[in-house]
Design goal:
With about 240 residues, the chain is of the alpha+beta class. The protein has a domain of about 110 residues. It has eight helices and eight strands, in the order αββαββββαααββααα. Strands 1, 2, 3, 4, 5, 6, 7 and 8 form an eight-stranded mixed sheet that branches. The longest helix has 20 residues.
Length: about 240
Amino acid sequence: MISTRSLLKRVNELFGDAIKLQPFDRILSGFDKLTELAVSISDCSKITEKYRYLGITGYKIGDFSGNCFINRYLPCEFYRVPMLIYRSRYLIPLVFRDSPESHLLFQESYRIPSLIQLIDWELHFNPKSIIIDSVANNYSYAEKELFVLDTGYLTFRLAEIIDVASFPVSKMASYEEFLSWNREAHLLDNGHKGRHSMILNIDNDRERTELQLVLAIIQNKYPHKQLFQLPQINRISEKI
């Protein structure tokens, strides 16, 4: 029989360190004051220590401004935002849209590591699309200039992969099956239009690594699933 003390210890192990998002209203867009969700400042040190192995080197509370996903790319000003410092160079604001996927980010253990994988890929291939602002830094353990990332967009893109695509993709037996599904789903889309345009070219480094990223994130969710293998480079160029 499990003692009450042991049961309480187990409950604390499961839920005691849970990060809960709170209303955050220090956002201005024109004359409008927006309320979304954010991590509490008191939880920042806990998050920093937990994800230090992923490259989180600290946190800071600061201001920034710019056009971002959280308000449909309208100009916004953010005040006293808790932000993680990533690789001593980037800031990950811990403010999110009020949506289910924002809560899940801290409830499912594979989501933050997956978010970091997504950030790394976006910084390599699309840095201008996810960097909102740059701010001066006085911390000795980080660069003099820090670049603020668009957490709203990154969280949305992560949800597209995990909450929309992961289940059907995990059931696919081949790359060709994924291509057929992707024609309709447009999870990966190089933006080219037309009947004979390529929707996915495995020979292209950007498109190949994006698919590898998607599969890696889905593997994080289903670690015991055997996902389909990619063909050799220079073998397939799919056209619609």
